[in-house]
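1st attempt posting a full record on here, be nice pls
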Amino acid sequence: MSLNNTFYSNYKLISTKITKANIMSKTISNNFSVNNKFNQVYQYNRFFFKVNNKYSKTAKLNKSNSNSVNIQKGLSNLNSFYKNNKKPISLCLDSELKNINNCNINNVNNINNNNDDNNNNMNSFNHISFPRTMDDINLIGRQTILHESNKLEADHPGFNDPNYRKRRNEIGQISRGWEMTQPLPYVKYTQEENNVWSIMWNILMPYYEKYACIEFLQNFEILKKELKFNGKEIPQIRNITDFLEKRTGFIFRPVDGYLSPREFLNSLAFKVFSSTQYIRHHSNPHYTPEPDLIHEFLGHTAMFIDQDFCDFSQEVGLASIGVSDEEIEKLAAIYMFTVEFGLCLENNKRKIYGAGIISCPNEVEWCMLDKPGKSGNMPTFHDFDLEEMIKTPYFITELQKHFFITPSIKNMKEEVIKYTNSIKRPFKAKFNKDTRQIII
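the predicted structure (as tokens):
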């Protein structure tokens, strides 16, 4: 069969061949490890093999004159997998591998431990896992949520409140049960939840007027006018998504807590922002140890109206497709010091565009200090230097010790694109906006 992009992104065809096997090996150097868990979160993984032009005893590629590829030897663990599970197996190669374009897989045979030490044309491969279609996005976070609704940390204000935990789980189930092809869920928020929203709205609005960047302020006015954002009622994620998708192509996908950095960034490549729908505990509206809808809706939504910001966000997402764990850590740091805790300059004054700052009064006051506060401390401010940024630790549940200041949102976008273009990787991912698929 032809391994073109249409085949590669056809989930049904692939799943019938591999029976939704979860093949998690990062490298094929001495073995091909298989984890035979079915229908789990890594169901979206694709098989991608990078040709390194290096010798390997376990995987042999023979390229014939007819431009076909046979995987002939090695991969012994696949043989064991087949014997144990009695399932058909097929391997998929990307059609745009360097020097192996438009290839066909004729067969997969002789899967055993035989090695051919005499063939110098053998190649080694790296296995890279990433979503390719919007169907794959459905599977992100299903089993890798780091803070599930029924497993709140002890420092969470709602930890000892069974009613809050039950309510969190109810909203979490709405998120977990939603598929990308369905209408976005509607959540009927309680009066207590709307009261928490009102408290934080009234606290944050003066901070917005004084410290938010011009892009944030202008866009927040649009939200109030077009989406009727107000201090009395929590907006619905479906209305936010409908509005943003028409303006910038981004959508908010409901999730039930923290995703892994790779999953969260991979989603951005599809113009999908993973958003919670629950709200912080009423006993302490000023504080939450995790993202909640106040952080998402009041902190993030306005900037997703800005096209430069959206382009930047998607660029970070595309750069995360198929890269190493080390690169994911660097991209996560860039995301945290920009989207979450970003500062910019306006008329030589610090202004806020980061959602983690603008949705937290304590963080706003902290990042605006010009001299040490009551604690005798103050943060360190840096010029926008990505090389320094990726080496700097960031904090999720503490005040940030470092902030990076960009001259403008546009400048930030340009600098990040330069950085992502410099990342060494076997391919470059592109997003087809018509089919909403990742093209390699």
